[in-house]
Predict the 3D structure of the following.
Amino acid sequence: MRKRVCALLLALVLLCGAFACGAKETPQTDGRPSVVVTIFPQYDFIRAIAGDAVRLTMLVKPGSEVHGFDPTFSEVQEILTSDLFVYVGGESDKWVNDVLSKTDAPVNAVALLDMVDTLDEERTEGMQGEAEDEPEADEHVWTSPRNAMRIVKTLADALCDLLPEQADAFRKNADEYLAELQSLDDAFHAVMQNAVRKTVVFADRFPFRYLCDQLGLSYDAALPGCSSNEEVSLSTIAYLIARVREENLPGVFIVEFSDGRTADAVASATGCEIWLLHSCHNVSKEDFENGVTYLDLMRQNVEALKKAVD
């Protein structure tokens, strides 16, 4: 834990005391079950399945950086008193294990990494940073529509268990959403059927291992997907410039909330364009308030990918 370690430990001590007898004291609510999630994809999937039938809370605030998130006292309390807690799992969510292991209160928790077949995060040639002794699972499992379908099915099961009387409605909503995800997956694969190129360059973090793997795309990137490093070395920038020239690529990708400096350097040297490929990790406050969805963002990604491979 980082800057809030003292607050978190205090929260755990107090909450463990409150739950010492194993009883789960849920704060007064409007009667709906409480579902707490860490990031936007989980939030949007559950919103699509359950609608207003649950009281849904997203811990990572819109517009904020996801990596390195530390929960506050009140957020820990929300987790421990929730009826369902959904998190990603993996290296970035190690704090979750600390929270869940230090209370006797049962917490109904599910992790996205347990819902799909995971791939290890890769360190490709030219990518900045040292290779890990033991590679970690790539956490960005939702960036593949096929994985999203598996996640939605599992979340639908969990919600049906939570509210059996709403199961028929939840199943109907989930089936309709799964059809939309299948259409999204078909759109991505249709782009690749007509692709002239099968290499992409990310002048940024790379959170698209699952999507690229399923589409048969090779890639080069400045940083791994969960990198906390914002500075990219000159040697990495030089490598990306060389790759753009070698492959005659019309553009490079950035991800949401990028400062764009690496992409600007590559574009300045090569004359290529810069496009956004949204990982859906989080959204801006404006987009969140306007009701943007995972499907909206991923459909935009289909069009962006088309530019890169045509």
Remarks:
- The longest strand covers residues 199-206.
- The first helix runs from residue 5 to 18.
